[in-house]
User: Which sequence fits this backbone?
């Protein structure tokens, strides 16, 4: 078992331990005096882990209620949130009670947003079950939903009271989901940790996934502790995401997974920054090869004009300019402000 402490406004622990799902109640009991717990999950994850979590919570003395929604990014909207509110109210979940988010990124983002807003905020615990959620979305307190105009445009910063990571859950996922998370893992190597990047090139990530999760979570924890509300450094975590989000939006959040879109985004932006003389030569090629190793796409047929247009409505735009996370070299990143009108030129070959 390994524990990482996150020193945000309200500090909390991230515990990484195989099999922790089976006795999650014991760990939750240490941080929550709730009477009632609402477990929020989706139709893929709940059938696999729901009983374990509910039993463990019940054994720890909680009254447990569970809510499941249709799995997938399509559910990540205010309609589902509204159903969650009704469910929480019907089951008399009060301000001192607790929400447990059991699932991948979509579940964590939505359950977290429900926790942030229901009764003006109640405690919640993250039990991320996908690699993407374990290394990224469950840490840092970003919660929210998609709206027609874009991904994650409505939400709140709301820190969990505890994060429990059980890498055994990765064994039950189709490889596609593992690869999806690997894009974020590669991202951490790119922006902060050359030795992680080197390691991912050499080993098979699945063979040492606990170490890799720990490594990634520690990087994210450090960044988020220094910049909880994304005033500066935290934006480095968006490496590959400005173009990635644009691609997801163009594809209507359907044909590309988040990780696939981020992989293409990282390759595309690094090719561009390399061409502009901002990034060490050869970096784009290394990222491309590493993405390919983990079955991630590195290229999109969509025109640069369309991608630039979609990216210009990204929430990270600041009036007429956009802050791009770029690499100086593998393992070192920085933020570069660029005029939106020049983005298309910048990414065109
Ligand atoms: Mg991401």
Assistant:
């Amino acid at each position: 078992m390994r524990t990482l402490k996150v020193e945000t406004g309200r500090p909390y622990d991230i515990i990484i331990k195989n099999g922790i799902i089976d006795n999650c109640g014991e760990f939750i009991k240490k941080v929550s005096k709730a009477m009632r717990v609402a477990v929020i999950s989706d139709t893929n994850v709940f059938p696999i882990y729901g009983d374990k979590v509910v039993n463990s919570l019940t054994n720890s003395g909680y009254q447990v209620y569970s809510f499941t929604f249709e799995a997938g990014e399509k559910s990540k909207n205010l309609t589902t949130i509204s159903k969650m509110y009704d469910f929480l109210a019907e089951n008399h979940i009060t301000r001192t009670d607790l929400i447990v988010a059991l699932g991948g990124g979509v579940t964590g983002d939505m359950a977290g947003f429900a926790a942030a807003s229901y009764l003006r905020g109640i405690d919640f615990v993250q039990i991320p079950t996908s690699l993407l959620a374990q290394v990224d979305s469950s840490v840092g307190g970003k919660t929210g939903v998609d709206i027609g105009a874009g991904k994650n445009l409505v939400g709140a910063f709301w820190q969990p009271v505890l994060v429990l990571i059980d890498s055994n859950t990765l064994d039950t996922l189709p490889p596609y989901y593992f690869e999806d998370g690997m894009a974020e893992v590669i991202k951490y190597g790119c922006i902060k940790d050359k030795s992680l990047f080197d390691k991912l090139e050499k080993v098979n990530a699945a063979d040492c996934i606990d170490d890799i999760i720990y490594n990634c979570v520690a990087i994210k924890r450090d960044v988020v502790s220094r910049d909880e509300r994304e005033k500066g450094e935290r934006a480095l975590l968006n490496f590959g995401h400005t173009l990635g989000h644009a691609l997801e939006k163009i594809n209507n959040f359907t044909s590309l997974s988040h990780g696939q879109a981020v992989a293409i985004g990282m390759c595309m932006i690094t090719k561009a920054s390399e061409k502009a003389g901002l990034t060490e030569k050869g970096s784009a090629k290394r990222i491309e090869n590493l993405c390919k190793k983990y079955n991630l796409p590195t290229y999109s047929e969509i025109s640069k004009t369309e991608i630039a247009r979609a990216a210009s409505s990204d929430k990270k735009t600041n009036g007429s300019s956009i802050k791009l996370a770029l690499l100086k070299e593998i393992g070192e990143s920085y933020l570069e402000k660029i005029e939106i009108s020049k983005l298309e030129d910048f990414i065109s070959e």
Q: What stands out?
A: The chain has 13 helices and twelve strands.
